[in-house]
Amino acid sequence: MGIETIVNISHKYGSDEEFVLAGGGNTSYKDEENLYIKGSGASLAAIKADGFVKMSRKRLSEIWEKTYSQNPAKREAEVLKDMMESRCEGEEAKRPSVETLLHNLFPHTYILHVHPARVNGITCSQGGENVVKHLFPEAIWVKETEPGYILASECRSKLEKYKAETGKAANLLFLQNHGIFFAANGEKELDLLVSHVIGTIKAQEKIVPDFTEVKKDTETVEKIKTVLAYELGGATVKFTLNKEIETLCKSKESFAPVAYPMTPDHIVYCKSSPLFVDGAENIIKDVSDFSGKHGFMPKIVFVKDVGMFACGKDEKDAGTAEKLWLDEIKISVYAKNFDGVRPMAENMIDFIANWEVESYRSKVAQGKA
Ligand SMILES: [Zn+2]
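^ thats the input. predicted complex w/ zinc ion below
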């Protein structure tokens, strides 16, 4: 019961790549008084009881009675400060997830929040809202919005409205271009809810990703890797080619479904834009134009008729970028079942790209970075 159960739940879903990639997702357990939320930096697959941050639920709720700055960066910094002050004594060294406010909104004991490709095939599709209404009439749908305080307050009003209308608390919440929240009062109940959702979605899929490996042109790939590594200042470069990538890298038009990030995770690990290069001979010029335009180096580079290159400062960084863009590709394929992809809105991409910087700044300001 309690903390051991949430540790189990975290290990179970955290070690399954269908649910969790690269430190994404979070879990929590609560009693009347306290919320125990996964701390930043802990991975769900390996978290121990002391990896959860013990927080005062009362202090977290008080955030909703306060008025914050109109300036988004200032507002987020103020809310973050109040969130930090909601930590119980002795928890000062830990940093709660940015999604803590959302966890505290549910009355349920156990919360699992994840970003699975299969679910995001719906949340990142044109038909997403209608599909959720149809398949999961008991669920809440929340439109893409600024993460942090605004997203949490949007969820809060939807959850309250649901409770007022139905007399019960919602246990499923879909976030457009982001992921899903599952809420339950026991582990078994949570597992049943998860398998109900995943099973229902699976039954709808006519098109699924085909990641069958495709034979690569080794010589061209090695040449491009060398050029990219040099142009990106000594980056580690990884190459992938499978059936889906083969189709996507045929032309700029066929690349369109994955030309923009689908969720905040894709921005965090792969930056706000990938690069499509129309032939190996254009790489140097295109990389230079790209970095001039965006102010950063590309992490994902598709080369026409060659394949996908994931770049990073080391093996791990490049590997994570590769994993996340393969996830993006999966989502784009699953979305074909639901009227095609709906990538993140441009203003949201900008907001998150800047928000990352702001939240880092506020960490620095508090001496936590
Ligand atoms: Zn999330």
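The two ends are 34 Å apart (CA to CA).
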